[in-house]
Amino acid sequence: MASVIESLSLGQGYPRYAVLMFLPHDATDEDYVNLQYSVDHGIVGMDWVLLGARNIADSKAIRALAKTLGFSFRRYEMNQVSYLRVEGPGLAELAHLGTSIVSGFYQFEADSKVKLLLQGFNWKRAPSQVSSLGW
Questions:
Q1: Do residues 4 and 135 touch, judged by C-beta distance below 8 A?
Q2: Contact, 12 vs 119, CB < 8 A?
Q3: Strands (E) located in the chain
Q4: CA-CA distance, 4 to 35, in Å (whole number)?
Q5: In what helix (H) or strand (E) does residue 7 lie, and over which residues does it extend?
Q6: pTM attached to this predicted model
Q7: Interval 36-68: pLDDT, tens
Q8: pLDDT tens, 13-34?
């Protein structure tokens, strides 16, 4: 995750984001969890978009997890879509937060398949599916 966030931070495009999409093991439908990293006004942050049912349902627990790790989400709205965003203190810490959500909260295994959508920057390995959370 850290290498994607670093590439995102070095990019020049707008909009610039990376969205990790996966189905938790307990999912009973095709409602993917979406974890997004984006650049807003030159600042890299992690976004929890309140669009999909699973993201909405889990938002309170994700906020609580982030708080235990020293992060605070702020609520925003863009294009009539609400989302929670956390910024700083550094890229490594943002990567750790994402990994804690994916592998800790959702217990998603590192060798499981995820979808990765990229916009506005180049990454050395940019397939539509990535097989490791170590990216």
A1: yes
A2: no
A3: 17-22, 33-40, 43-49, 74-78, 81-87, 114-119, 129-130
A4: 13
A5: helix 2-10
A6: 0.88
A7: 999 999 999 999 999 999 999 999 999 999 999
A8: 789 999 999 988 888 778 899 9
